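[Meeting: bench + compute handoff]

Bench side (C.D.) handed over the final construct sequence. Compute side (W.E.) agreed to return the predicted structure before the next meeting so the bench team could plan truncations. Sequence as handed over:
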Amino acid sequence: MLNSDALHQLKQLKKDIKASRNLATGRVKGSNSKFGFVTLNDTGKDIYLSADEMQKVFPGDEVEIEILTNEKNKDYGVIERLIQSELSTFIGRVRKKNKNSFAEPDVPGLQRWLFIHPGKLQNAQEGDFVRCKILQHPIRNGKPQVAVLDVVGAEKQVGIEKLYTISKHEVRDNWSQAILDECAQITDEVILREGANREDLTQLPFLTIDSAATQDMDDALYATATDTGWSLSVAIADPTAFIAPESAIEKEAALRGSSVYYPGSVISMLPEHIANQLSSLVPDQNRLALVCKLEITAQGDVDSFNITQAVVQSHGKLSYESVAQYIDNGDETGIQALLNDPAHLPALTTSLQYLKAISSALNQWRFSHALINDDRTDFRLKLNEQQKIEQIVRLEQTSAHKIVEECMIAANRCAARYLLDNPGSQEAPGLFVAHTGIRQDKQSAIEQIIAEKVAPASPEVSQIGFSTLEDFITLLQLAERTPSEIPLRPLITRQLERSQLSPGAAPHFGMGLPHYTTFTSPIRKYNDFVVHRMIKAHLNGKDAITVTPEQATNIQQAQQKARMAVNEMEQWLKCQYIKSLPADEVYDATITRCTSAGFQAKLDENGIDGFVSTKEMAGKYSFDAVYQTLKGPELTFVPEQKVRVKLDKVDQKRKQINFQIEV
């Protein structure tokens, strides 16, 4: 038996041996093959992991490795120990081999099947989509084990794409019994009780403009002329009047973050009883609202505004198509067909004329003082009874869309101003949408573009920068008028940071506004719902409501998860759809992004995205990261360029579409 001195010496020897080894910690990163990497925590450097070492870990694992050097003087890693594993559950497919069952995981970078413990299959069949949990990590013997938690569905099951993405992205689509119990207590009596203490605006001819199938209508408009311009009233549905703070309904709304708009269906943020009925600004029914009344000059300035709690009544549920038909051609028939009471028609068409003038003035103000982005073409997937794509419909931006857009932006600007004038606290005055400028890693590229392109074309401007909002607006205005074979303005705006929800006010560089928030969709977006709570707390003289940065991040992450679910479902369906089209069809497309490996292109007729690889083109190509340009021996490709492509292949597993260029 060793004495204490010997034990001490042995421990010291182990420490010395460990200290002499090149040990480091980092996070495992997979690849499209069986090998992987560990990204070191201290330097960010990627250390190669062989296929054998990757058998011991999962992508995302926090590990300690020993860094060694091979005979070619290349560093590689050997797993020393597992610190933490993030992968606990995942979604995938059941695969059979011999008499054993495996899960083929849908986890980025994880290129192996995982053994399903006998008796933990839940009757899943070959090819079924399943949700699994990890029973045994592979760190000890390289042999992980998993259990099937539930069967999502079979490959041929109708609507499997939606079911799969709901499960994968953990979209919340059921109401708890506590929520159902609360809903049972919420009736239209709330409208009568709350309305008694609010301003009665039910005689004003408010109107809603939305898609014909929309049920959760959360904004209505009314406008009149004044001596100096117009008076615009924007009524926003007030679901907060029906939902108690800290109730089960509100807690669920916070977790959902937003309504989820799948093709052909909606998973509502709020119970449908509230979202589509009691709160929705349905026609000819009294509804509770926050009304933002704006006084707008002929030049599009918002001269003043106020926000009040009111009872309103929509006098007509109008569609984008019917309003555009009237605005563009003076044809009232589409509007008239939608009205419950034809007597409302004269007042509504008069208001629409004012709304058209207001939207033009507001748009001109933003053009002169802020930033206006180019209209983006959207597409709607029309599904058949089998929940597959029957048709992809191009959605044109009409004059009606522009009316709604300008009025909502103006009202949201006022809401941001209201929060700043009546802050919840000095550190967290409200809940804002911040867009903080050019990404740090792209600033040198923008400086090069300014020096080589923008500055020479604008010698009258002594200094061109982008660090302040004012400088950035000037830069984009100059870039817009600078002659260039590469469109400079979209090239610059692609380098912006993503917008963020923030308790503190900050500029919105993307819109060119000093501060911005949204409160016009409280039925559909939880951050708008929270802004309503904040505004009403001040209006009613109650304690201020604030949010923490963590709460703002949680809302944003929930909304991002919903977008990812919808995007994945749509991409899955598009992969199926494009394979059903004629194989030799040639399409007009627009390049959206270039990389060193090729370029992404979007088909003009249906919005389907696909990748064109330089490996499939003759000659070598070089990529200019500053100007996002891909140049070959004969052809050059840049963002916004028109090209012609045809389908090359579809990787259904990765949900990726590849095109090939047609010269």
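W.E. noted at the follow-up: The chain is about 30% helix and 30% strand. C.D. will use this when planning the next construct.
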